[in-house]
Amino acid sequence: MFSSDIYIKGKHASWLKFLSEKTEKNDKSEKVAGVFKRDIDVYLTAAIVGLNYGLRRDADNNTDKAKIHIDTVHKEQNNLTFVFRIVMLVDNSTSLSADEKIERAFRKPDTPENMDLFNSYVRGGIEWLYEQFSEGATTKDDYLAKIYQIVDSYNSELIV
């Protein structure tokens, strides 16, 4: 599990690049929000956002591609595994029992179906994050205000 490069394709790749500060460093002409330091940070956060809001999206196979290199994947292995297991345990899109969810998360995680499910939440989260940061923000201060607004709103949802 998570033993090779991670590829995101199509519009989700474009949106991941928009959200990542790494894009801005590599291509000064590209319009980016740069609210996350690295692509892997977008990927991990998007999985949790997608799960939290129940957002799953199918892969888009347009031409754009984003690649999270294996060296970064290895460095973040513990975080990737942790988030993956949370998604597998909390997901209610199937009628699995608690024991079956535990099996899916810990004993047999490395199946194409599990990775497809996980990545569908990642794509849903990327889409949600992109929508939040692409509307009404153009400067670093605007993006910072959006971050504050999102965190404050999320915090309010948890307290209620």
Low-confidence stretches: none
Global shape? globular
Number of helices: 8
Rg measurement, Å = 16 Å
DSSP, total strands? 2
N/C terminus separation: 36 Å
Describe this structure in words.
- With 160 residues, the protein is mainly alpha-helical.
- The chain contains 8 helices and 2 strands, in the order E-H-H-H-E-H-H-H-H-H.
- The protein has a two-stranded antiparallel sheet with strand order 1-2.
- Helix 3 packs parallel to helix 5 and helix 3 packs across helix 7.
- The longest helix is centred in the last third of the chain and has 23 residues.
- 32% of the residues are buried.
- The mean pLDDT is 91.
Give a quick rundown of the structure.
The protein is mainly alpha-helical and 160 residues long. The chain has eight helices and two strands, in the order βαααβααααα.
Keywords:
2 strands, globular, mainly alpha, 160 residues
Helix and strand layout, with pairings?
Blueprint: E1 6-9, H1 10-19, H2 21-26, H3 39-53, E2 65-68, H4 70-75, H5 77-90, H6 98-107, H7 112-134, H8 140-159
Antiparallel strand pairs: 1-2
